[in-house]
């Protein structure tokens, strides 16, 4: 059963919905399904733009700490495990996606979930009661290079510093100030506005949009692809420090209580 649902809407807009209850937490399966859905949308001439959202109360809670990462394998090899590699690959798929990708934020976007949000070209949020943030530092996690470079691409230095180093969770009302979304919209017009904006972007000549987007993200992609095995190993090793392991255990206990 897929963890990403696809639904075609008017004007060539395809809605992709993360659907892995209860929090749309990121696993290798979800990343595989999302990459496949993007590939399908890229190759389908009838699709002019995609909209990415999450089912339920979450856009995504980030990496599934209770099953998304094989820490035993990481400990024995000291190298990135499958979820790290799949996350980087999926993020590159977003950056290389030649059509407009619009995020539809109406629930919590935490850690890797917020990175998926930032991977989209244009981001619209519901003016509602949910939280956003990059709390990796607080739980002893490190950012894969692809995730870090997407933060650098989308946010100002001040916004990135506050989110990355402060590691706090913020109410949705702060999403525009922090650069997570381009605009917050009222519930009454939210869905209609998201799909109308996506259709507008999709109405542009395909080659012009694809060429401009590729040029815009080219330096980011080059930095991601230049990562050496040694750099990747240092990133993975952060997860194994004693303080990091303790911080994640504490977080897991909170989630299960």
Please give a quick description of this structure.
The protein is an alpha/beta fold and 257 residues long.
Defining traits:
10 strands; six-stranded mixed sheet; four-stranded mixed sheet; alpha/beta; 2-enoyl-CoA Hydratase, Chain A, domain 1; globular; 10 helices; 257 residues
What does this structure look like?
The chain has a single domain, classed as 2-enoyl-CoA Hydratase, Chain A, domain 1 (Alpha-Beta Complex), CATH 3.90.226. The strands form 2 sheets. The protein has a 6-stranded mixed β-sheet with strand order 1-2-3-5-7-10, with helices on both faces. A 4-stranded mixed β-sheet has the order 4-6-8-9. It is built from 10 helices and 10 strands. The model has no long low-confidence stretch (mean pLDDT 91). Helices cover 47% and strands 16% of the residues.
CATH architecture: Alpha-Beta Complex
Q: Report, as a whole number of angstroms, the end-to-end distance.
A: 28 Å
Give the domain tally. 1
Class from helix and strand fractions: alpha/beta
C-alpha Rg (nearest Å): 18 Å
CATH class: Alpha Beta
Low-pLDDT residue intervals, each spanning 5 or more residues: none
